[in-house]
Amino acid sequence: MTSKFTISRRDFLATTAAVTAMAGVSMPKFAFGKDNVVKIGFLAPLTGEVSAWGKPGLDGCKIWADWVNADGGVKIGDEAYKVEFIAYDDEYDPSKARTGAVKLVKEDDVKFVMMLGGDPWPGAAPIAEKENMLFSTLLPSDLSPETELLVAPCEVHPIYNVTGVEWLAENKPELKTAVVCAQDDSLGKPSVATYLAAFEAAGIEVLDEPIFFDPATTDFAPLMSKMLALKPDIICLDTCYADYVHPLVEQAFQQGFKGQMISCTADFYEKLVEKTSKEFMEGFIFQFPDFDDPAMNAEHVNFNKPNDFYSEYVKRYGKGEWSAVSWEYASIMDLWADAAGRAGTTEPVKVLEAMKVGGTGRQAFGEAKWWGKELFGIDNALVGEWPVVAIKDGKAKIQDFKSIPAWWEKHSDLMIKHMKALNQMYYQRG
Amino acid sequence: MHKPDSHSVNLAAAFGFVLLAGVLIVLPHLLSFSQQEVLVLLVINVLLVCSYRLLTLTGEWSLAHAVIMGVGAYTSALVAKKLSVPVPLAMLAGASMAGFIAFLLSFPLFRMKGFYFLIASFAAGEVIRLSWKWSDLTFLFGGPKGIKRIPAFPDFLTIDFYEPVNYYYLCLVVVAVSLLILYRIEKSRIGLTFHAIHWQDKLAESVGVNTFRYRTLAFVFSAFFAGLAGALYAHYVGAIAPNRFSVEEMVYILIWAIVGGTATFYGPIIGVVVLTIVNEIVLRSLGVEEMRPMFYGALLIIAILFLPNGLESLVPKIKRLFRGRDKEGNGSLASPQVAE
């Protein structure tokens, strides 16, 4: 049996047009050269108790890379570069961070390394210095005059925490007293100093000394009982890790607290709502929005398509997996790509120069300035506006964007006073 | 049955030693940059876990060993940084301070035995560790953030000890000498007394052995070398913090010792080497960063289920395999309780 295959002229033209159109859609705008790949190091905790501030960031970076690569890559000079992230789990340990930094810089040939920062940074610092590599941190308290190649271009922890307290004082003036707790470590200490300054500036009395609990704590009932015994209007959970925020909030709920809660983060807050109730979580203040928030479409926001980014994140990793850092490393990448594009090179020192040119930069929530000399001894933190978020009917909603530099203008002396008292000024640390 | 004479045994041992030395000298040059970094930390951890084994010879398992390592690290870092003492001397000061702290701790701790000693050692360790975080002492210990920019081991002629290969050789020499001392202690009359205290402490006391003193001696020796490991760590990484010496780190020491086995001198060394290679090289190279704890945990469970006497129990089997003695049926394993 023979088959007879015929094609009409109309079919031929239609098929050709369709194939051409599909090829056009699927082809990137720039064709990558054979070796045009720029590698970026991701050195953060991907396992352990601090992983909630590492892994979601890597997940966000994967979306960022997919989008940028699909759009033709990062344009540097006359070439387009595909971006590839290479991750190393530093386990929040300086020696692992050192090993990871060596691998990323000397073996993987990355051009930029993003870190969470904190305890691991001192392990990686000598590699940054010796190899002239640009590093970023989410914790500006890592900054010091000796670390010129370390920048904090997105998160300005813990300074932005002042905005939440400032907003509370303006909108709920009936709240007069607060208690503060945090884990006793390099994140908790400067954060407590910041909240103490913010409460003092807002005229809110902090009852008793802040409670510093050991990071090994697992039973939070006694701690919450101690705080509630002081009958505060506000419970401040400072910058506790998600592993502490959740049991602390559960304890507050179980022990019948009815007042205001404020925290730096409320990662995976939907699980908190499930564990307690919508009513209990109503009005919980923290500093990290969901990016599906309509307020994220404001003109001053620099993050690329925040609503779509959030949808894609939820689609890939699940509802309730969005956290404080899901977007932050991606936001840093926006800044890096822009600077590399302007510098026309991926050379770390030149990119840093381009990043800081003019003393300002496009931070995720708006135009910001390179700042920090008084607090960190070096102007390597990008500081501008930061959102204040409250849980409303079980969903995070941006209440306002408030200016950190404006607060600093008025209350810098308070901040320095409390930082000094807790030995957190750059010249007091280690 | 043919029995090898002592001459051929000595010859074989010498050959094995030379071969091992050769491998250890060449090894870093066969590794990547990051694997060299892992190698340095591995050698330091070999000293740590071997020092821990010395204490276990007396039958006591402490949960303060990671903190004792920290005492050595903190002391060495502070002496070098604040008093500008040369790093090699600071290291000795760190090791000595760790030994001294162990001596002080021995008075309350050796009033207890077994489980009570275990828990009390944990409590004592936590008191020390939390004192490093105490706000009033931040000026000294740096608080939760610890001490950073610790002076590095000074360059010697043109040798830069920032380079992992060079620091590895330094550690190799220090650790080899330390292991030799630990081995000699174990084989001496003192070491035999440690064993006696472990298995028959009442009998030992009845023949005039002061068990408290010998337990203290084991604790102090063990702490000295743990402190030395801490000092080597501090001057290499350049930063230490209280969390680095937490109970989580202690669990690693226990795992190395248990999985490797503590019946022989080499048991803990096998444990730390194998588990470090699995965790830091194999699992990382598989690209399962976020799943590593799960795989690592599964491997530990498998090891404990199928090798209850530790990895060291494989060594006699392998030896028999090479000697072709399996057929003779002469191969019941040596009791894991008997030190080699």
UniProtKB/TrEMBL annotation, chain A:
The keyword Oxidoreductase does not apply. It comes from the Bacteria. Keywords: Amino-acid transport, Signal, Transport. One of its GO terms (biological process) is amino acid transport. Residues 38-393 form the Leucine-binding protein domain. The keyword Transmembrane helix does not apply. Belongs to the leucine-binding protein family. This is ABC transporter substrate-binding protein. It comes from Methyloceanibacter stevinii.
